[in-house]
Sequence to fold (369 residues):
Amino acid sequence: MKGRFSVTAFPLFPLNLFLPFILFLIPIILYTTVCMSLPSLDEYIGKISIVSSIEQVEAVRHELFGRKAGVMTLAMKDLAEKSPEERRTKGQELNVLKVKLEALISARLQAIATLSIDTLAEGDSLDVTLDLPVAEKGHKHPIHEYIRKAEEVFGRMGFDTASGPELETEDYNFNKLNIPESHPARDLQDTFWVSSLDRTVLRTHTSPMQIRYMEEKKPPFRMICAGKVYRKDSDATHSPMFHQIEGLMIGKTVSLANMKAVMETAVRELVDPNVDFRWRTGYFPFVEPGLEMDLRWRGDESKSREGRWLEVVGCGMVHPQVLRNVGIDPNEFQGFAFGFGVERMLMIRHQIPDLRSFFEGDLRFLRQF
Ligand code: DAH
Fold:
């Protein structure tokens, strides 16, 4: 059954009748819109003068001169449709208008810029009463401070300061120091060999500087040399890189008694005036006799991981063969040499249980010095 109202029951809207008329109207509507919205100078003078930010000025500029729908742009395009006469007069008018509007826009931009500098001067003035943020103040690493102090202490006892390479030849690091091929110090376990071809190592001790110094200078002399040394070792009292201070005193009558006096003065000044120490004999191929000096842990002994005593210095009378190796006659000259472990002296001085703390870069640790 059919519905009461059928769609076909209504006559169709006669679109086909109106279409040509609508198409005819569109250009007219467009034209009048453009013409009616032809910029009036007053309207835009008003607009430009009230905007207060660069963004707003730019928005008005876009409204006027935008490439697609700018009011001025459309008006210019529209000239093409005009008669030559009209094009000339209208064109001139538009040009005058364009120049005026552009001048207004740049004047407004200038005014806004000046205004913002002025407000900045008022609002952002310098308050000289304000406290500056606290500047962080650093200091030298405790190891370096300590080496400077040692140079000063030994300097007062007449010792010169020398320095030498960390990359050493096997010759200086071992051979000339009378360290035989079979010596355990040469073991791959201990030494960082850099090149097996030209037999270079990261120096395992500062003792090669004895040789370098003696090859250069004529005795008598006293010298110390501080620096980094390297060994494959790591625990509470060892680190793969650590510091030593080497010392050497050669003369005609320099004795073991002189050595002990110098060592004891140094540890009293550099560790503590009341530090307990003990002497032991020790073996080092480049001295004869050889001695070791241990310092006693200060404070709470349970905190020392090494026990009560810590070996801090190796020393002795320079072996005659070492003197011969550098062209010094052992019948004419003699003397002593020593090597301090810098970190170990600091450990005793400040009761630091683990030597590796010096190299962990923890500022809470370093700031204590
Ligand atoms: N070079 C030795 C080492 O690193 C320490 C040493 C011992 C240095 C005796 C010396 C010395 O000058 O005479 O273990």
